[in-house]
Amino acid sequence: MARVSEDAALPTHIDVAGLGEVLLGRWPEARKAARERALDPRLHSNHNLTFEDQRELTFEQVKILRDAGTALVGVPEYLGGSNSPGANVSAFEELVLADPSLQIKSGVQWGLFGSAVLNLGSKEHHLEWLPDILNLNTPGVFAMTEIGHGSDVASIGTTATYLPESDEFEIHTPFKAAWKDYLGNAAVHGKAAVVFAQLIVKGVNHGVHCLYVPIRNDNGEFLPGVGGEDDGRKGGLNGVDNGRLHFTNVRVPRFNLLNKYGAVDENGEYSSPIVSPGRRFFTMIGTLVQGRVSLDGAAVLANQMALSIAVRYAEQRRQFNTDSDIREQTLLDYQQHQRRLIPRIAETYAMIFAHQQLLDKFHEVFSGEDDSDGNRQDLETLAAAFKSMSTWSALDTLQEAREACGGAGFMAKNRIPQLRADLDIYATFEGDNTVLLQLVAKRLLTDYSDEFKNADVGVMARYVADRATEAGFNRSGLRKLTQAFTDTGDARKSVNALRDPEAQRALLMDRVETIIEDVADEMRAVARKSKSEKAEVFNNNQHRLIEAARSHAQLLQWEAFTEGLEKIQDPGTKRVLTWLRDLFGLHLLEENLGWYLAYGRLSMRRGRALESYVNRLIARLRPYALQLVDSFGLSPELLRAEIAGTVEEERQQEADTYFRRLRASGDAPAKEAKPARDPKAETRGHHA
Amino acid sequence: MARVSEDAALPTHIDVAGLGEVLLGRWPEARKAARERALDPRLHSNHNLTFEDQRELTFEQVKILRDAGTALVGVPEYLGGSNSPGANVSAFEELVLADPSLQIKSGVQWGLFGSAVLNLGSKEHHLEWLPDILNLNTPGVFAMTEIGHGSDVASIGTTATYLPESDEFEIHTPFKAAWKDYLGNAAVHGKAAVVFAQLIVKGVNHGVHCLYVPIRNDNGEFLPGVGGEDDGRKGGLNGVDNGRLHFTNVRVPRFNLLNKYGAVDENGEYSSPIVSPGRRFFTMIGTLVQGRVSLDGAAVLANQMALSIAVRYAEQRRQFNTDSDIREQTLLDYQQHQRRLIPRIAETYAMIFAHQQLLDKFHEVFSGEDDSDGNRQDLETLAAAFKSMSTWSALDTLQEAREACGGAGFMAKNRIPQLRADLDIYATFEGDNTVLLQLVAKRLLTDYSDEFKNADVGVMARYVADRATEAGFNRSGLRKLTQAFTDTGDARKSVNALRDPEAQRALLMDRVETIIEDVADEMRAVARKSKSEKAEVFNNNQHRLIEAARSHAQLLQWEAFTEGLEKIQDPGTKRVLTWLRDLFGLHLLEENLGWYLAYGRLSMRRGRALESYVNRLIARLRPYALQLVDSFGLSPELLRAEIAGTVEEERQQEADTYFRRLRASGDAPAKEAKPARDPKAETRGHHA
């Protein structure tokens, strides 16, 4: 049924090894070493424990990572490190193969707690605290989020007030909503915390800053003034001891203010290299982008795990006789099963290439290759866009894989449900995905009005002309994109034009631009109105702004995929991956078909032809599905899912052999004779 | 921001109590008693246990239900029951409020194991086995699914061969793929099983039949010839002890064949009241529809739980200052948050009314009020349609609710993650949802060709005329539905026409009919071709057939909602619920907008206006959101989620009081002065 009708001389296979190397990205050795390490059974968690016991097990696993020296890769030479942020994050992402709790527990220690000291502190701070952070003498807490404020960090309630008389800061939690919450390492293991608080010096609030605060003694007891609560069991990640912290007039020396972006001198004078409080805040928060980058990578890897398991099973598993009385059909030969898995393979490839671009940019900024303001802002926007898309995609793909494997998919021994439970929180921690997409949308609006603001007459005229065309088109139904492809009388030919990558790009981009332009117009109309009127117009456009941000992220993924094709040498592989890129693009058009038709970007004829075209493209890719997931390089030993091996195939061979021998023996029972007349028989054979 | 612009004299509130009664359906007392019982802390599971301990706890809980006599409601008077299938299932569904594992563990015992004896056995079988099943002396297993065959039950490998010499049946598992799998009660507690096997009598296979087979002695040891394996930990429902069973030449008396639809007499002669083996099989399987009916009800209840928690939290939780410097905005005032929750409230109402119709029909059939063949078949189709839609909806809604509550949504103390983990398997057990939708589609195809087959000349002529119009329309872009509403120059007026319920119904129905007609045409074209050619055409249409089945199910939900409106007395409540029904209908149009535009059912103008119309409808419903979920009647004590109470509101009031006093005291720290000149400041305020 995997019909390939249109092209002669199809590639017989794809270059799994060569493609696999491309998919490993810029730091393949770091990834390979991490995968080797992930095979170590000591790093494989046991989830059939109380959450209290799981936490202890995970903490022991973090010590194994410490002994392997993994944390040193990301820190400067003067701390014994090799200062390769890209290699460090690459290896960190791969920890999801061992166990997500281990990934997050070590990420809290080195990626959040340690990175805050590294990126917000001075070299003196590094030398004072980082050695004990790296070697786990000081397990630590990243105390930013409060019960009352998660997404809106700028509004947290904890205060750090400078006391000139003792040259100290006093950390204080004024009410319950200002308790720090959801903090890894807070419930049990943390001995110190980096605490984000409103910095008050001489009666002036300088906004959120970060201070290093010891919280427990060596017996694990809270220090005076520090208190907390255990968050208890969670939906997943129960190897991480999340909890709450509060502070009652806790004093720390002035030295403990991480002072890279805001310092208090011995005279009690505040100073900052960034004059604007708003820009200072965003710069400080921006240094913590590593979490989003690495969650993106981990989520993309989870997709690869899910699809590796589900496709291998779907290639072996058979159910129902459809075109043969003897041999049942494999799941992956069913069109609907292809529809469920193959577009998700395409999306995963797009996200792999997108993540490579994100990680490269992260390395540029944090290694100092290019840490310009513009590059930092691009990094933040990309991280927000890709992290939200990939963490949602991981939940969707893991669920689809679970269901595609039926009851087997629900068994812990097949790994998928625990992965999904653990990754659930990835959609809202390190930035709630909805809020992140809104950030992306605001960036698009800002860029759009910047372009408008600085426009010379030429650009301005072009803009007006474009808008006029747009308005005219909306009234008349004329297409704006006629230059990209022309419609013909033949539905198949007309949809074939969509294989042109420039047509795909133009359509994907047009949707983003049109929505953003339209919202910008509405915002401009109320630019001089009251704050609440502006807020209302913005809110009335929130849904489509978020849709525009999503489409923008997908366009960036599409472009990354398209650029990634250039890295592939083998012509057959490149051809198959080009189909896969086309599928990614056309599936996006299909998902937003209502918009493309309502705004005249696609004709009704093309709209009607799209579904069957996508179906044919999927059928053409079906023979390569297994090789496409094999290229992810995830062995059954890494996946640790029984059905990712050959167990299903072996069971079927045993059954086939049994029935073959039975038929040959002549002892096979006969089928019951069909009744001579039974008028109602089979007339309602509505069961498959 | 909850702007209500179009209607004067809006209802000030809805009649929560009166609406709540309507939502309870035909057996309100059964539901109320079950809710009262669900408050009993002995029925609340502890999930912080090994799965082995969870199983024992859940088994103890089932004994509490036994002591309450809950299982008797569904059985005949001669067993001490009250023979009310509808009341029985109503109460059973509500168990999800206590714990899904408890629901499924008791459902295995009484709903599957017991029901098989009841519905497939004779009165002698009832009297022999049901008393011990009802009182838990015989915990039992429903042994249908095998490792190798889940959806395709007809192809199972286990055999039951009649032995004339001893007048016994021999149950045998010929190979590993024929091991029974995923069976509740099999791993630990089951003492007997109803085993589905190919019945072989005198060398003839009469197809799948069901036999009662003891499997363990009173010490919990397997009887001779019986073996098994523990399925171990699962993604959820760990209070249920799923496992595998296999049989090696296990003999049971001839009496143990449940013989309602197929019997073997003392001369070893097979007979059945249903001559056709195919029809016999589907009739037997059809008696087990209770599982699907009750999962539908449980899933709809899970939706109500998720939305009760998320909406109550969204009404209290505030984040970001948008239109005020002092007061932050509640989550539910954000358009995107409304978009996430309010259409799901509409869908849940539609599913509640749809489930009431399903349960009424179930009661008709199983109480004997109307157990005609036609009604049975309608029941099966409705159950397949609604169970698949609602179990998927529950996973989607629980996930959206989890994310809408942020980190709090991930905490076990807020209930959502465990519910979602437990309900995950509802999407594939008791019928894989994708397979169920395919059954619905096949029923639609059958009904369509029946109509065609029996058509008199008039119908035939009408059909040909319809098809001609359709084809003409497809070429010219003419609308088929012009009679339902006419387009005007005014976009808002033109979309307003969609508030007409007849327009909604016509559009929803048209989509189903058009797809089914189209596929039927393609199938007819190959009707005389080979089996494999027919299979290929069917497979090439599988995706859109499943989409048609989904749309059909949604149309039935829409109709149930519309009929449900008639039960509402209070005019204001009826008005609000009519908007909610409109939202359900228009949101379906929005989700399939590409189809409606590509096939000319909606104009481009209407297509463009739809999104903002839906947004306005959602905003109009927003003030009633809390009352709409309050009408579900789920108290905080039933929900057992911390954030479903008032904790968030109390924390905010404490913080507000703190800040108000601070401002009044004059001790509030000043904001840092804005810099006189900092050209880069705030130009990239792309963080919310």
Automatic annotation (TrEMBL), chains A, B:
<protein>
    <submittedName>
        <fullName>Acyl-CoA dehydrogenase</fullName>
    </submittedName>
</protein>
<feature type="region of interest" description="Disordered">
    <location>
        <begin position="650"/>
        <end position="688"/>
    </location>
</feature>
<feature type="compositionally biased region" description="Basic and acidic residues">
    <location>
        <begin position="669"/>
        <end position="688"/>
    </location>
</feature>
<dbReference type="Pfam" id="PF22924">
    <property type="entry name" value="ACOX_C_alpha1"/>
</dbReference>
<feature type="compositionally biased region" description="Basic and acidic residues">
    <location>
        <begin position="650"/>
        <end position="659"/>
    </location>
</feature>
<dbReference type="InterPro" id="IPR009100">
    <property type="entry name" value="AcylCoA_DH/oxidase_NM_dom_sf"/>
</dbReference>
<feature type="domain" description="Acyl-CoA oxidase C-terminal">
    <location>
        <begin position="502"/>
        <end position="643"/>
    </location>
</feature>
<comment type="similarity">
    <text>Belongs to the acyl-CoA oxidase family.</text>
</comment>
<dbReference type="Pfam" id="PF02771">
    <property type="entry name" value="Acyl-CoA_dh_N"/>
</dbReference>
<keyword id="KW-0560">Oxidoreductase</keyword>
<dbReference type="InterPro" id="IPR013786">
    <property type="entry name" value="AcylCoA_DH/ox_N"/>
</dbReference>
<dbReference type="InterPro" id="IPR037069">
    <property type="entry name" value="AcylCoA_DH/ox_N_sf"/>
</dbReference>
<keyword id="KW-0274">FAD</keyword>
<dbReference type="InterPro" id="IPR055060">
    <property type="entry name" value="ACOX_C_alpha1"/>
</dbReference>
<dbReference type="InterPro" id="IPR046373">
    <property type="entry name" value="Acyl-CoA_Oxase/DH_mid-dom_sf"/>
</dbReference>
<feature type="domain" description="Acyl-CoA oxidase C-alpha1">
    <location>
        <begin position="286"/>
        <end position="445"/>
    </location>
</feature>
<keyword id="KW-0285">Flavoprotein</keyword>
<dbReference type="InterPro" id="IPR012258">
    <property type="entry name" value="Acyl-CoA_oxidase"/>
</dbReference>
<dbReference type="InterPro" id="IPR036250">
    <property type="entry name" value="AcylCo_DH-like_C"/>
</dbReference>
<feature type="domain" description="Acyl-CoA dehydrogenase/oxidase N-terminal">
    <location>
        <begin position="51"/>
        <end position="134"/>
    </location>
</feature>
<dbReference type="InterPro" id="IPR002655">
    <property type="entry name" value="Acyl-CoA_oxidase_C"/>
</dbReference>
<dbReference type="Pfam" id="PF01756">
    <property type="entry name" value="ACOX"/>
</dbReference>
